[in-house]
Specification:
An eleven-stranded mixed β-sheet has the order 1-2-5-8-11-14-17-21-25-28-31, with no helix packed on it. The chain is built from two helices and 33 strands. It has 409 residues and is mainly β. About 23% of the residues have low confidence.
Length: 409
């Protein structure tokens, strides 16, 4: 968890860095010498079950080939990217028969089932093509770009409309980010309607500056996120629209990475499953968030491990929250499972309803725990608060030290 403040239109929340060097993506497969047909997996030869357009996008240049060289060498570059890659079989992670097919997954109603490895993450038993193995940043500037059935290396910087990332492993970059970012960065003003779904987000190099998905105007659906700093970061663009426009549904988030050192906190990283820092139109529904943490390489367990910071953090660092609904999630662990803070504004209004709370939060002493914590009673309006229940016995939470809902003051 890192605080963000709006100073001017060029400042990104969480000190996000926009990188211009990286990787260009082709918008179609109409490349000379490319024998692969739209809708055919390079590794399996099967028809892609996801895309109505039956389109699998391939790179116009590998990280080792500068974009300027593509004009004269596109045939050989594409041939290398298609024919020389290896497939990843996810059956080593989960049993193929235990994972729902894409068509079945999309029919699931968020909040009616508890997300697991069966329903979240890349589809087991499918072959994914290794992509951008050099690990350079992938900068997407073409509207409508689709990345699917891939094992993707490199942090993905989305700078376009209607981008889709589907049924893939997202490993992030191999470098240490200089500033806070995400494996998927959706902070650009150019982003509209980004979709990241049915993907496994697990950094190959965990880092205190590397979250899962961060920004605005995105839908994160049925992803399995682990080992990142935070899972999802949600905020509107400082200096731009107050609307965040984010949907998070059916995701599984767990095992965040704790680091002894943080540029934002004296006691190490504050790892959150979902951190909301500002904006309007935010819907968090039907996720399974276990705010557990593991120590990063070279770090101690710190003051909280195996607990992370907050499972769902609702705060107002960037902008005032409006039309924020948190409902029907399974939430457990952390210092606090759901935390509500008015921040720099005089009041906060959110809806938190019909969530199922576990009992594994950090013990502050003598059994004192915080499943739902509201920082300031007089400043907080929380609709639906009385409808949240314990996951183990379905009993409604009530205000009280051992009853599930607590106020700081």
């Amino acid at each position: 968890m890192q605080n963000s403040t709006a100073q001017n239109s060029s400042v990104k929340p969480r000190k996000m860095a926009i990188r211009t060097a990286g990787f260009l993506l082709a918008s179609t497969l109409a490349l000379a010498g490319c024998s692969q047909h739209p809708g055919t997996s390079a590794s399996s030869g099967g028809t892609d079950p996801y895309s109505s357009a039956n389109e699998l996008l391939l790179p116009a240049a590998t990280p080792e080939t500068p974009a300027a060289a593509v004009h004269n060498g596109v045939d050989s570059v594409v041939a290398q990217s298609v024919n020389a890659v290896a497939a990843v079989n996810l059956s080593t992670q989960t049993t193929p028969n235990a994972t729902l097919a894409a068509t079945t997954r999309s029919a699931l109603i968020p909040g009616n089932y508890k997300p697991s490895t069966t329903t979240a993450g890349a589809i087991a038993g499918t072959s994914l093509t290794k992509y951008n193995t050099g690990g350079a940043d992938l900068v997407i500037t073409k509207d409508g770009t689709v990345l699917q059935n891939l094992d993707i290396y490199g942090d993905i910087k989305v700078r376009a409309k209607n981008v889709v990332i589907r049924n893939s492993i997202l490993r992030g970059g191999t470098h240490a980010p200089a500033n806070a970012t995400g494996i998927v960065d959706s902070t650009s003003a150019a982003v509209v309607n980004l979709i990241v779904e049915d993907s496994t987000i697990r950094p190959i190099r965990p880092h205190h500056n590397r979250d899962g998905i961060v920004g605005h105007d995105y839908s994160a659906k049925r992803n399995n996120i682990s080992l990142t700093n935070d899972g999802l970061g949600i905020f509107n663009r400082p200096g731009g629209s107050v609307k965040a426009n984010v949907l998070a549904s059916g995701n599984r988030i767990s095992s965040l990475t704790y680091w002894d050192w943080s540029p934002f906190h004296s006691d190490g990283t504050h790892n959150d499953g979902i951190q909301v820092q500002g904006g309007e139109n935010i819907h968090i529904i039907g996720n399974n968030i276990d705010a557990s943490s593991v120590a990063g390489a070279g770090s101690s367990n710190g003051p909280r491990v195996p607990h992370a910071g907050i499972a769902i953090m609702l705060q107002q660092n960037v902008a005032k929250l409006a039309n924020v609904v948190v409902e029907k999630n399974w939430v457990d662990n952390g210092q606090t499972s759901i935390n509500i803070a008015n921040g720099k504004y005089s009041n906060i209004t959110v809806t938190v309803r019909e969530n199922r709370l576990g009992r594994n939060q950090m013990d502050y002493g003598n059994g004192s725990k915080y499943p739902i914590r509201i920082i300031k009673r007089s400043a907080s309006t929380v609709h639906g608060l009385s409808t949240n229940r314990w996951a183990d016995n379905n009993v409604l939470l009530r205000e009280g030290r051992d009853l599930g809902i607590r106020y700081n003051g």
